Amino acid sequence: MIILPGTGSGTGAAGGGGVPHALRPEVALARKVCRKMSRSEVLLWRQLRGQKTGFKFRYQHPIGAYVCDFYCAATHLAEEVDGEFHGRGDRPKHDADRDRFFELNGYRVLRPAAGDVLRDIEAVVTMIVSSAARPLHQPAAGPPPRAGEE
User: Is residue 1 pLDDT above 50, yes or no?
Assistant: First the structure.
């Protein structure tokens, strides 16, 4: 019996061989980061998960080439918990570039400080939920007015 390479000889990994499925880089990054939650992210995720707030949030959600800590798809709201790391080195420029990308593509960005999450989680959750409840544009109201037409 002749066994062709990649056809599954039974000696390799389960699944019949072939080329392994490659993840998009942003998905691979999101999965890697997801395993390393900070204390403030853990506390906030406990409050946001499972539609306890009336909105469904995702954790470590890729958007384009970036990954946001929390994301509400229904309202295009991205949250990034800003810890001590976000003020170091080139991180402020990277964060500004990411925020600009999100905003140019129709997403709103909230940046609660990790210290605020640890001090007063209820206030942070209230701020996030109230932001999610206020969409950028209400389609029933028609298009937003042009500059000078208010």
Answer: no
Which is it for the CA torsion 27, 28, 29, 34, positive or negative? positive
Number of domains in the chain: 1
CATH of residue 44's domain is 3.40.960.10
Mean pLDDT for 103-109 is 92
Element (H, E) at 125: helix 121-133
Assess if residue 67 is contained within a domain: yes
pLDDT digits (tens, 9 = 90+) for 35-82: 577 889 989 999 998 878 899 999 889 898 888 899 999 999 999 998
CB-CB contact of 32 with 73 (8 Å):
no
CA 112 to chain centre: 14
In a 13 Å sphere around the CA of 101, the CA atoms on its Cβ side amount to 13
Token duo for residue 133: 């409840």
Q: Are 19 and 9 in contact (CB under 8 A)?
A: no
Strands 77-79 and 58-63: unpaired
Q: What is the CA radius of gyration of the chain?
A: 21
